[in-house]
Structures are given as C-alpha cells and as structure tokens.
Design brief:
By secondary structure, this protein is mostly helical. It contains five helices and no strands.
Length: 183
C-alpha cells in the first residue's frame, strides 16, 4: 500500500480537522515556494557582484532564516485571526444557520507556522546549494535550473492525493514565480 505524502506526518497534533490539515498543506506549499524564490533572488542578485561561495552562503543563510521566521510569524498571525473569527462565529451560531461549526473545527496556528517555517527552509536550501556548490562560471544557469525544478516538484507535491491537474499546477507555479523573480 502506497503512503501519501502529507506535511501533517511531520507535525504531531492532538486532533486535526479537515480545515486544519488544509491550512498546514497550504502553509507548506507557500513556504516552500517562497523559500525557493526568495533565496534564489538573494543568491542570484549577490552573484552579480562576483562574491565568493562563502559570502554567498552567508547571504543565502541569512535570507533563509529571516524568510522562514517571517513566513512562520505571518502564518501564526493569520491562522490565529482565522481561528478567533471561527470561534466568535461558533459562539453566535444559531440552530437555523446553514453553516454548522463545531469546536473541533478550530485551527491550530502553530501547525501552520511550523509547516511554513520548515518548508521555507527546505525550499531555500535547493537554490542555496546550487549557487554555492556550482563552479563560478555556471552558478547562474545551475541555480536557475534548480529553481525551476524545485518549483515543479513543489507543484507536483501539492497535487498529490487530489484530482488537480499536475500540468496546470506546474505551469502555474513556474510561470507566476518566474514572473515575480523578473520583477
């Protein structure tokens, strides 16, 4: 029996509702994409100054840590607000309402924050290694190639256990991220 990949395997939570699992997956996908693009932008930009591998590594690691903390903090704040709204709605819910909320529908902000933090680092490591381990004359093309492959892989992972189109997800992921890197 083939086991499906899920971010929730790496984060142990007492009980996860469907919405919480979706938040963890969403945070993981966004975190990885942002890690790939942010650190690619940092190291590609810094490589234009002909910096040595050690300096590129320090710049990339600094960007990776700052980005992962920023993403995790943003996820925690966002999901906390979402949970607060959900709980207020639950308090005001009447029997007549179409939307039936339960206490178990509550979201766990720390789960989304950890998912985002870890996946940002996982995504960032790929372009960072590509840049710092490549020969100086091939740094840029190898890093760009690694970035595109990483984005495609993240898009593929995001479609696992769903009926979403893999080709559409890969195209959307690469196109939007490449466009944002060009800006």
């Amino acid at each position: 029996m083939k086991r499906a990949f899920t971010f929730s395997r790496f984060i142990k939570i007492k009980s996860q509702c469907f919405w919480d699992k979706l938040n963890i997956i969403r945070a993981g996908i966004l975190g990885a994409n942002d890690g790939i693009i942010s650190v690619s932008g940092i190291v590609l930009g810094a490589s234009g100054a002909n910096l040595d591998s050690k300096t590129l590594l320090i710049a990339g690691l600094s960007g990776m840590l700052a980005g992962a903390c920023s993403m995790a903090g943003g996820e925690w704040m966002s999901v906390s607000t979402q949970r607060d709204i959900l709980m207020k709605k639950l308090e005001k819910q009447t029997i007549d309402e179409d939307l039936k909320l339960k206490k178990t529908d509550g979201l766990t902000p720390i789960s989304a924050a950890l998912s985002s933090f870890c996946s940002f680092i996982a995504g960032a490591i790929i372009p960072l290694c590509a840049m710092t381990l490549s020969p100086m004359n091939l740094r840029i093309p190898i890093t760009l190639f690694a970035m595109i492959i990483s984005l495609a892989l993240n898009a593929f992972i995001s479609t696992l256990n769903s009926e979403a189109s893999v080709k559409k997800a890969i195209f959307r992921n690469i196109f939007t991220k490449e466009t944002s890197l060009q800006s």
